[in-house]
Write the structure tokens for this entry.
Amino acid sequence: MQSLLLRQGHDVLAAESDADAHLLVTCTVIERTERDMVRRIRALAATGKPLVVAGCMAAAQPRAVRALAPNAYLVSPRKWTQVAALFEADTACAEQVRDAEATGLGYHDAIVPIAQGCVGRCTYCITRIARGRVTSYARDDLVAEVCRHVERGVREIKLTGQDTAAWGVDTGETLADLLAAVTAIPGEFRIRVGMADPLAVLPILDGLVAAYRHEKVFKFLHLPVQSGDDGILERMKRDYAVADFERIVRAFRRPFPELTLSTDVILGFPGETEETVAATVDLIERVRPDIVNVTRFSPRAGTPASEWKAPVGWRVKEWSRRVVAAKTRIRRAINEALVGRTMRVLTTEQGKPGTTLARTDTYKQVVIPGERGIGEFMDVRIARASDIDLYAAPASGL
């Protein structure tokens, strides 16, 4: 949206008080996030300036948005390109726009959405209501977009979507096809594939693993399991079993034993018990993911699960502490096993003063002493580790 507005001659300002109008891109995936969005809508509406509310709330909860900001313009996710038409455009030199897009916003990576929607039917998910079924963006258009980013010096390309593995289900193509096309682009850069649902990965598993073999693809897999209990998965209508999740992980780890595995877990879903939580902890212990994103169940109006009775909050807090303790211990052990290794990294952004952040080929974050150039490949020796980051030795010790 920022790039589109810049091309239309608008300025995207860092300070909202200096703006002539406001654009709020909303998320409503859980109740806490919705409360944050409500506060922002109220605050921006109170300024009296033109307000555009875009994103999932505009699609899934338009009445709630209009109650908060009756004069706001609403733009659903699938109509995001309309935002520029809602503001009165000035004129701008195309060359200046390109410069602003490349440097003015401080981007060191490029986020490339590849599709809208998903193939799932989860009983708890309001995002499905907002985003709908899968609509894939054209492969040629995506390749051209990545080319533009690479030509202006971007070295990290993030392919995103509600479910990246669902790309192409509506066009007869697969994510593996897209990766083959993108990695064929000349230049030295890396691709990070965003969240891929097990349901969509299973039919394309062999081809996707093969596509990951290319050196330009980070060996990083975000595969949300949500629960280690088949009964809970069935109530969620995730449409796969725990065994399917583990089969996918094994398929990726055979060629990529040091794969960085990220997964998601929902705790406190209606029907959750001590036994189902124990099954989830057992799964984490077996699979040993590098990252576990833990979310407490949040009933979303309009979804089937919002009508079901959920476990009490204090019990869910205890379950959450148990899962967090397991994932922290596992991740620390994985990271500490890398101490002493020399690893190839790509510098991605400035860290805290006097440091630079980089990513390994498996997308683990490395803190490098000193301020280095962004978008550079280098070899570093890992001197120490925490449960979050790896830390490189000083330059004299590289």
About this structure: The chain has three domains: 2-92, 95-336, 342-397. DSSP finds 14 helices and 16 strands in the chain.
